[in-house]
Design goal:
The complex is a heterodimer of chains A (about 500) and B (about 100).
Chain A lengths: L3 H10 L4 E3 L6 E2 H16 L5 E5 L4 H13 L3 E3 L6 H11 L2 E5 L13 E5 H8 L15 E6 L9 E5 H11 L10 E4 L6 H13 L2 E4 L5 H10 L4 E4 L1 H14 L8 E5 L5 H10 L4 E8 L4 E6 L1 H8 L4 H4 L7 E2 L4 E5 L12 E6 L6 E2 L2 E2 L7 E9 L5 E6 L4 E3 L2 E3 L1 H9 L4 E11 L3 E10 L5 H9 L10 E4 L13 H13 L3 H10 L1
Parallel strand pairs in A: 3-4, 3-5, 5-6, 9-10, 9-11, 11-12, 12-13, 25-26
Antiparallel strand pairs in A: 1-2, 7-8, 13-14, 14-15, 16-17, 17-20, 18-19, 20-21, 22-23, 24-25
Helix pairs in contact in A: 1-2, 1-7, 2-3, 6-7, 8-9, 9-10
Chain B lengths: L7 E3 L6 E6 L7 E3 L2 E2 L25 E4 L4 E7 L5 E3 L2 E2 L1 E2 L10
Antiparallel strand pairs in B: 1-2, 2-6, 3-4, 3-7, 5-6, 5-9, 7-8
Classes of the chains: A alpha/beta (about 500), B mainly beta (about 100).
Chain lengths: ~500, ~100
């Protein structure tokens, strides 16, 4: 089943419902279908056997997804913020391709072999034509999306999502046209993020109008929520904190907002608690998933949020830092290095199985023959089946044979009122294999001993960081993923050239 | 007709259309409104639905036969209902999740 069938069904049943853009004057489902059909005819006439999209979010992004599906062209959105050299390399890897790109990128990306560039404006002209669109026969093509992973540690890998992976995710989680006519979702995740793609598919199938915010600023986000009567939104962790800052400053309460989901990285519990107190009428959803799993595989639902916030039992309260329970359509297990299931409560690797799981890259399959996919995320399940994700397996610190997940120590350090941001890392150590260090952003002078005492009073002494490094900020990529490798190199560099004065200066300046 | 995953099919007696989400584990005849389904556009519209059914095929609903694991997504509604080897397919209860993206 191709992804564009989702649109054909929705347009058949609700052709006049506005699906993209403003409540007045936005694009209807029928118009989106027609535009996608015109786009498909054009894309099928080009030499490119794939379609790439290098630009901001906009109606043409939705048209490109469905048009490419109809034309049987795998679709690849690229991160327009990457340096030119990297973008050109990714275009080369997608060639021969028809590349739809923002006007200002045209010149910078020209001349890559096998790449035909078309500006978003010209693509929009092609699909906005008034002529009755012909329906083309979709050739056999089961690859829907090729997404380059963020590549925070190495060359980006090309994850392959098949039509069956994506449609199975949509069919099993979304009720067809289940949204109310006045529902509207604000999409602020970029097109090259899996959540940006699934937002298009699930919005269309549920009949929920999408309002796209091309470039995120917290002020613009808050303004658009009010202006467009937004009822649903999804944000990555860094966005939420900044949105809350704006709300606190302006006193706005977003009365129309009903549901806010977050994901795409680890959310500090303090931020969730703050959000729930500032927006008590809003249903919060924590969604955990990977590109390779076609988006969400586990959800902490609104009721679990409310139960956890003020519960007497610390085990229940703790669930606010979990990603909730796996989707009922999936199987999920925690396994040890040998691939055997671990006992409840023990940390291991998160494995998952289900129709929506691709687990496949252009370089080969990681998914096993029996359908199980090792996510490379470290995590554990509590007795009620709540999943706690502790970060990437590679980030787990092995000190003296003991596995220590950075997030466990980071969560404790964040409780210090002077700590604004923190990352805990392992550095090579001759005696222990690895030793624990912490990179900290503070807003006041904080003594190492204070932080050590805080960790020691909450965790085993083996978890206490040996050294603290103070920085004005930590490095993140633009979807809010901490760049641990870059941070580690920075710390190793600072260790080689000790500059004690820097620490004091930064603290004083903070 | 062949009921491989992804196959589109149409009722011979009404406007209903479906797509196979999960193929049956054993071969058999899929019907809608009592007549075997055909490929869409195969021009099977001559037959008539004999009597109205209680639960006609609704667009966006999934219908299953637990015995053979067959699952059909209705992509166009109609007056007839799907059945496999004479057994009416049952509605698969979707459990919509809170919006997460």
């Amino acid at each position: 089943m191709h992804t564009h069938l989702l649109l054909e069904m929705a347009a058949d049943a609700a052709p006049d419902r506005v699906i993209v853009g403003a409540r007045d004057g936005g694009m209807t489902m029928g118009a989106l279908l027609d535009a996608s059909r015109r786009a498909a005819v054009w894309l099928a006439s080009r030499a490119g056997s794939t379609v790439t999209y290098v630009g901001l979010n906009g109606p043409s992004f939705a048209v490109a997804i469905f048009g490419a599906s109809m034309a049987g062209r795998p679709f690849t959105p690229l991160n327009y913020r990457l340096p030119d050299a990297n973008l050109r390399k990714l275009l080369e890897r997608s060639a021969p391709t028809t590349a739809i790109c923002d006007a200002e990128l045209m010149e910078r990306l020209s001349g890559v072999e096998g790449v035909e560039l078309v500006s978003v404006e010209n693509f929009a002209r092609i699909h906005a034509d008034k002529a009755e669109p012909p329906v083309i026969d979709t050739p056999d093509q089961d690859v829907a999306i090729v997404l380059f992973t963020s590549g925070t540690t190495s060359e980006p890998k090309a994850a392959i999502l098949r039509h069956t992976n994506l449609t199975s995710y949509v069919l099993s989680t979304i009720e067809f046209l289940g949204a109310d006519e006045d529902d509207a979702a604000l999409v602020s995740v970029p097109p090259y993020h899996i959540a940006g793609i699934s937002a298009v598919l699930t919005s269309v199938y549920s009949g929920r109008r999408m309002v796209q915010l091309p470039g995120f600023t917290p002020e613009a986000w808050v303004e658009l929520v009010a202006a467009e009567k937004i009822t649903h939104a999804m944000v990555v962790p860094t966005m939420l904190g900044r949105v809350l800052d704006v709300l606190e400053k302006t006193g706005q309460t977003l009365p129309g907002l009903r549901a806010l989901s977050y994901g795409g990285g680890r959310m500090p519990v303090a931020v969730v608690e703050r959000a729930m107190r500032l927006l008590p009428h809003v249903d919060f959803v924590n969604a955990y998933g990977l590109t390779e799993t076609s988006s969400t595989i586990s959800i902490l639902d609104p009721q679990s949020h409310r139960d956890a916030l003020s519960h007497a039992d610390p085990a229940v309260r703790r669930r606010l830092s979990s990603v909730g329970r796996p989707l009922p359509t999936l199987e999920l297990e925690i396994r040890d290095e040998a691939g055997n299931p671990v006992e409840t409560g023990c940390v291991g690797e998160v494995w998952v199985r289900g129709d929506q799981i691709s687990g496949e890259y252009s370089s080969g399959k990681v998914i096993r023959d029996d359908g199980w996919f090792p996510t490379k995320d470290a995590g554990w399940l509590d007795h009620e089946g709540y999943l706690f994700v502790e970060g990437r397996l590679d980030d787990v610190i092995v000190r003296g044979g003991e596995n220590i997940s950075p997030s466990e120590v980071e969560d404790i350090l964040r409780r210090h009122t002077g700590v604004l941001d923190v990352a805990v890392l392992g550095l090579p150590d001759d005696d222990w294999g690895e030793r624990i260090v912490a990179a900290v952003v503070t807003d006041a002078l904080v003594a190492d001993d204070e932080l050590r005492a805080l960790v020691r009073s909450n965790l085993r002494s083996s978890r206490v960081p040996e050294q603290f490094f103070y920085y004005p900020s930590l490095p993140y990529n633009d979807t809010g993923k901490l760049l641990r490798t870059a941070l580690k190199s920075q710390i190793l560099g600072d260790l080689e050239q000790p500059r004690n004065d820097k620490k004091i200066a930064l603290n004083a300046a903070g | 007709m062949n009921l491989a995953a992804g196959t589109k099919l149409a009722s011979a007696v009404c406007s209903a259309q479906g797509i196979i989400i999960r193929p049956p584990s054993e071969s058999g005849v899929l019907t809608c409104g009592g007549e075997p389904v055909t490929a869409p556009g195969a021009g099977g519209g001559a037959a008539q639905l004999s009597a109205p059914v209680d639960a006609p095929a609704l667009i966006g609903k999934r219908y299953v036969d637990e015995t053979v694991g067959l699952e059909v997504l209705c992509i166009k509604g109609g007056k007839g209902a799907f059945a496999f080897e004479g057994r009416p397919l049952t509605l698969k209860e979707a459990k919509p999740l809170p919006a997460s993206d």
